[in-house]
Amino acid sequence: MAAFPFDVVAFDLDGTLADTAPDLTAALNHTLEQLGYPVVPAGDVRHMVGHGAKALLRQGLAAGGRSDEALVERGFPIFLDYYEAHIADESFAFPGCEAALDELAARGVILAICTNKLEALAWRFVDAIGWNRRFPVIIGGDTVGVSKPDPAPLLATIARAGGGRAAFVGDSITDTTTARAAAIPCIALSFGFHDRPPAELGADLLIDHYDELIPALERLAG
Ligand SMILES: O=C(O)COP(=O)(O)O
Ligand SMILES: [Mg+2]
């Protein structure tokens, strides 16, 4: 088989590798209930993910008409405790994702994760979903001191994965902005968590299913 055109493929986590909205929604709503504020429908939470847990909490409170940083600080440990204990109760890999990861690994590609989740939570997630052998490198929102859309976490992910030719796969404007700033080619998924129409994400290519990932990477390199 011909050598694959990328040495490293880095992935965003929430809304890209897995649909984590059910467990994020449960953790957010548990926190809002504990604080005495209205819960948020799961469909709304999908558009709030991608900027880290505090941003999710901030948006969850804002949906109920509150914007108060002291409440975010009070809610943060409640959210983390609950989420850590229920991190993959209902989350699931997007259809075709594991087969695409298997194929990339079989073709010698190093797989890595660059997420705005706290790094420890990202490791816990991959462990809980049975992926700890798939990803030798995970960079979280707290790993390098700045989070996406700063290019530094993505560049660090690629460097720790051994460098070489790299591509990034993500679902949000945060991811496409990060990739552009890092000058790394980027594929976006039309089925992830978005706060705008996928065609407006500005990715180099947009795919509708994981079956399209490997041909898209080949095209991107072409
Ligand atoms: O918002 C988060 O906690 C992380 O989201 P991401 O994996 O899409 O970067
Ligand atoms: Mg995402």
Number of helical regions: 9
Widest sheet: strand order?
5-4-1-6-7-8
- How many discrete domains? 2
Query: What is the terminal-to-terminal distance?
Result: 17 Å
> Proportion of β residues?
5-15%
Largest sheet: 6 strands, parallel
Order of helices and strands: EEHHHHEHEHEHEHEEH
- CATH domain class of the largest domain: Alpha Beta
Q: Tell me which ligands are bound.
A: 2-phosphoglycolic acid, magnesium ion
Total beta-strand segments: 8
Helix content: 40-55%
Determine the structural class based on helices, strands and strand pairing: alpha/beta
- CATH homologous superfamily name of the largest domain? HAD superfamily/HAD-like
Protein name: Phosphoglycolate phosphatase
Pfam family, one: HAD_2
Pathway: Organic acid metabolism; glycolate biosynthesis; glycolate from 2-phosphoglycolate: step 1/1
GO molecular function: phosphoglycolate phosphatase activity
Compact overview of the structure:
This protein has 9 helices and 8 strands. The protein has 222 residues and is of the alpha/beta class.
Would you kindly provide a written description of the structure presented here, covering whatever features stand out?
The chain has helices at 21-35, 42-45, 53-63, 69-85, 97-106, 119-128, 152-160, 173-182, 213-221, and strands spanning 8-11, 18-19, 92-93, 110-114, 137-139, 166-170, 186-189, 205-207. It is α/β, with parallel strands linked by helices. The chain folds into two domains: 8-20 and 91-221, HAD superfamily/HAD-like (Rossmann fold); 21-85, DNA polymerase, domain 1. The strands form two sheets. Strands 5-4-1-6-7-8 form a six-stranded parallel β-sheet, sandwiched between helices. A two-stranded antiparallel sheet has the order 2-3. α1 (21-35) packs across α3. The two termini are 17 Å apart. Bound molecules: 2-phosphoglycolic acid and magnesium ion. The site of 2-phosphoglycolic acid has 13 residues, from α3. This is Phosphoglycolate phosphatase. InterPro entries: HAD-like_hydrolase_sf, HAD-like_sf, HAD-SF_hydro_IA, HAD_2, HAD_sf, PGP-like_dom2, PGPase_prok. Mg(2+) binds at residues 12, 14, 171.
